[in-house]
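Quick illustration for those who missed Monday's session on complexes.
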Amino acid sequence: MPSKRPSNFVDIMATVNPDAPARGRKRFQFDIRCASQAAEQGVEVQGLRLLSVAPGEEDGSFDCAIARSDGEYVATLTILVSDASEYPSDHTFFCSSQDDLPGYVSRVTETIHEDGSATIQKTLMRLLEKLAKGVATSKKTAQSDDEDDDEDIEDDDDLGAYDVDDDMGMLGAQPGNSKFDRTALQRHFNEIVAYGYYPGFIPFGLDDFALSVSLPAKSLADTISARALMAWDKHLLSRAQHLTLLVSGLRGVYPFVEHDATFTQSVHFHGVAPQFRVGLTSDYKPTKEDASETIRKYGLKEEYDAHPAPEPVQEPLYLDDDYLDYEDSSTDDVGALNGEATEDTEEHAAGFRPFSLSSSLESLLNGHFLRILQFRIQYKLGWAGAERLLWEVEGTQQPAGDIMRLREAYIRSEDEADMRLSRSYVLPADPLLERDTTKPVNILLVAFSYLMRRLTLCPRYCLVCHQPLQEDLDALKPYVCSSKLCTYQYYTLNRGPSLEYEICANPVTVDLLVSLAYVALAEGAPDAPLPVGMGLRVECRTAPVASKDYEGLYEFDQLSPNDMRVATMQLIDKLPPIADMKKHLQQPRKAGRAKPRLQDLDKAVPEAAWSVLRWCVASCTAHLEELELEEDQVKNIGPEWKQFRFSVGAPDAEAKYRQAVERAQAESPRARQYPSLYAFHGSPAKNWHSIIRHGLWFKDVAHGRAYGHGVYFAKDGAISTSSYSAGAQSCWRNSASRVTNCVALAEIVNLPSKFVSTNPYFVVDKTDWIICRYLLVKGSGYVNPNASTSNSAPSYHPFNYTNQPPPPEENVDNSIPYVPLDPTHPLTLSQKWIRIPEPTHALEKILAARREEFIPINYDEDDLSIFDALPPAQPTQRVEEDTVMTIADDWQHDREWVLQAIEHLIPPPTESSIQATTALQRELKALLKEQKAAKSLKDLGWYMPEDLIGDNLYQWIVELHSFDKDLPIAKDMQKCGVNSLVFEIRFPAGFPHAPPFFRILKPRFLGFSQGGGGHVTLGGSMCMDLLTADGWLPSYSISAILLQIKLAISNLDPKPARLASNWDSPYGMQEAMEGYRRAAMTHGWKIPQSFDRIAR
Ligand SMILES: [Zn+2]
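Prediction with zinc ion bound:
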């Protein structure tokens, strides 16, 4: 009988080992004793109990007995360590048993040696978790009279019925064990909606369901740069769809975690094993069929993928990644695929579709998320601090409490660093900051918010171990850390983008990456990246010291650098042309037949060559995409140049560049007219393999630094391509491009006075000032033999800067926006003027299309049954009297003054939405709570009269008061006897995604033209960026905005706010709206779409 709440196994284990000997036999025996004590105290994981742990008969072994929570005996296992002197780091465990083990148990015990080296405690925990999953699946199929889920059969289809737990009484159930608390789910659904996400309820039959949370993919671009999204996975923005988190394995139990994020008791009783899946769905939630198909597939997959089987035996080297499913969308996008393979496209659009980051995010959520969350709550940390704590716990095997005691400052410094980070990234609102800490955690909301955070920051973390990357370069695309284990797993588990998809969708880019790698290796480029850490086994003709295996292959990582280069080149030369691969992958196949695998194309190609190919593609953290559409291409560049869109640098690079431009514009009128310059950066072909991966412009100095330290740019492309970027001498046998020269075209902040040098080259030492836009590649393979010969061989004429270049051509397509180029620094290639399409144009077109397609979400009946479980909570209770404690000298609310101010108020807005209503309830509650908690109203600075909260949530009355008494406005208020500024706040139906409208009702301020200030418009509305469509963020709280408004009114710059002589006459709604519109127009701020409707 479980007599008390099962605690977290890890913590029980952890509390007993601070004095542990460091390693070896003593540590092994010590840990057995710890585990034994923990077992006596009662260790339970997901419905399984550890009955006992004891030293085994054989030296270096121990026995453990396991039973179910209901008392049913499972097995006694003997666990043997390979070498106790290596424990706890370089050993292996093996497992045996005297018992006749059920299949699901032996499947787990047979693979225990694959789990790597861990402590006894950790190994037991994994063992129990795996067994629990086995129990869960075996129960489904077992013939059962002793099963504890008979209710599956007896229960009616009402999931809300609590009597499903009747038979739990026999198992020692206690109050609170009810399986499904519908009102808790309703509350959580409403909170999810309030955060702007979409919850979903997916019932399966009688007694199980899955839950989902999603966000329209187009909304990702509101907080993550579209450039980054496209680089991570083009599919994210390829059609109208949702980023969806699916939570399954709940077995009808909700909520499944407590207030501290530990599992509820019901979880243990019912063998719940929650699983998170991340994918793209067409609707706001997957269909029942798609959800169950996804869960079924997952069940078949190795769940402990962080510890893979050492040899990849019969498994296909590249797992099916549904690369063919993407064809239809790609064809729509760019016409990249010619649709050779024929399958009905409708099927393709359906389903729960993984994208390039799915498997990494899933492993993070399933493997670490709950513990990170538990640490966050227990130690009051932020996400970054809790993650650091977990990595420390896992790395040192010390208890979390000890680490917090000894290294708290270090752990917390991660949270501080995170605060700084949040200035350049838009991180999602954090639901843990404003929750009721006594109630079960809204795990769906918190998990989705965490998912959004990690998606936003994905290039900063290793795709495999999830820890922050130590690299000092900021990559655009996520990759792995330099640990060999991570590199190995990345390539063997096929994390990250699918090679097959890249071959089908971007064959020209794949060919370029392989060709550049080859040139770099063949021509001995210094620090050219090599495919180390992947466990490659290769031929080597120089007979190195490293020993051969039985196939006569050598371990790649043990070769000399020169042998590595030669071996890699030889492997690349064995690869067939990329076009053949594409054809092979896209060959028509019969329905039901397995997808073609790359390796089947040519059996003579060694495994390692395919791995090198994957490495060439996956290790490129820049974004390279062939520009096929005429309108995307730079104009006046000869046809012998292939153009690629080229982005390097962190996702926030664009934002940093914009800031640099704004600063330049503040000091230079020239920059106001022409914000950026464009110039060429050339380098020999052999260097680009490294540049594309490292983006280290500074390192690229092979051709001297005659004009100072920095990145060199030429104003004429011919200079970059001829004198500086020596052509390649070598070529991959099957290269389609046969690349000879590469040159990047970059945008630079137009402030040449701050460059290191400007003549004859631009030399720029501030990397924030440079943003790469294009890569131009010349290759003999790109020349179309049928093209007119006049363009095919441009001759190089040294450019004379004293001459004016020829005037720009007039007969160009003007239907697309071009970058205005500063005529003082003409951009030319072989003396021809170059025109550059606005780089954001293509992205904006895609985003506009996605916004256009978006269909407002209609919750289906299953979800509505959750939303309607109870009548919506009443937003407020009227409070009879001011409950605020009065402190002497504190500010006092004057009811009469406010009533006068709201006399002519127009009725509240008529538009509403479920999402806004829930968000407003939450905001109102938070605001009143803060007001009640305030020790002094004077310090608070604002006041919301509770008796004036009407029936309509969309219209609030708030006062601002207690301005610094030295301010002119404070003096004016005192002179006129004005107690407070009375504000009306009107909320649109799009709240919290659309900003609320703030206006002063009374008193009237002096207009700007008459010498007034304080960011108040002539009509009494607030002239502030953060209240417009551009500046608004859904995460802003009303009280934070009130403080911002108070600051704006207190601002003396450019002029202090003053009261008008007719201060007593209230502002009207129309003048307020006009004032807002005028101010927005003056500043170029975007007016919210629904703005006009706010007055209705
Ligand atoms: Zn790693």
